[in-house]
């Protein structure tokens, strides 16, 4: 009687491995997000934005996070499916863009932009200074603009005095968009408007509006109501000028102070922080000339009020 051969039979069960990267060649000029959506029809717009945010998308070998990055014919776009190595995380800030010339960060509410007499450490400046000195102890960081301590959102720092001066001296020409989100008290009836005044700072460091051009700096604020209810309104705010406390003062001027802003007339503090967030920052790179556009998530605490 023959015994059955009990050796396992070999089966062709090899799995086809997903490629580490998918490559595309650009045929005609277009924006990166438009290109990716066309090439990955099975992915949603949000899926693609997450791939961009998490640095899975490379153009000619460089990771790109801006959704509106302009592609030129013959460029190579790669989607790296494996997650990139975890970057250094810092408490209070998130680095969203960095090259040899500048750094763009998202700052959390409660973090100082730069040191004060009372606090020297754990500022955005000190954290970034430590970050770049890990790369080279001779590296330095330079302030380009500031956000109030209780304002969250996008900020930019330069890596050299030359780039700092280029940005500051050509600020109005370089900055293409600065959009803030502001949650203000009450129902704002006028759905969009422009507020213009001349801002003056008192000896007590309170900024206020005045109509006299000879004793104040001209400030122009454009706003649009995105959401509202009887208690609060969410405003999209674009600055034509960037004066100290400009949004906070102009919000008070129209009778709808920013929530949590007792310095400028707020009577409520529903989310235990100032209702102001630097949402979008778009500018022309001072060295490469590239158009850069960064957009953050709307703070969940803001949306929770609606």
| Computed CA radius of gyration, to the nearest angstrom | 24 Å
Strand content is 25-35%
The averaged pLDDT comes out at: 88
What's the CATH H-level homologous superfamily of the largest domain? Answer: Pseudouridine synthase
Level of helix content?
A: 10-25%
The top level CATH class name of the largest domain: Alpha Beta
Describe the model.
With about 300 residues, this protein is an alpha+beta fold. About 20% of the residues lie in helices and about 30% in strands. Strands 7, 8, 9, 10, 11, 12, 13, 14, 15, 16 and 17 form an 11-stranded mixed beta sheet that branches. A 4-stranded antiparallel beta sheet has the order 1-6-3-4, with no helix packed on it.
Summarize the structure.
The protein has 306 residues and is α+β, with helices and mostly antiparallel strands. It is 18% helix and 32% strand.
Features:
306 residues; alpha+beta; Structural Genomics Hypothetical 15.5 Kd Protein In mrcA-pckA Intergenic Region, Chain A; Pseudouridine synthase; 3 domains; eleven-stranded mixed beta sheet; four-stranded antiparallel beta sheet; 18% helix
List the helices and strands and how they pair.
Blueprint: E1 21-25, E2 30-31, H1 32-39, H2 45-53, E3 57-59, E4 62-63, E5 70-71, E6 76-80, E7 93-98, E8 102-107, H3 124-135, E9 142-143, E10 152-158, H4 161-169, H5 171-174, E11 175-185, E12 192-201, E13 207-210, E14 217-228, E15 232-239, H6 246-253, E16 276-284, E17 291-295, H7 300-303
Parallel strand pairs: 10-16
Antiparallel strand pairs: 1-6, 2-5, 3-4, 3-6, 7-8, 8-10, 9-10, 11-15, 11-16, 12-13, 12-14, 14-15, 16-17
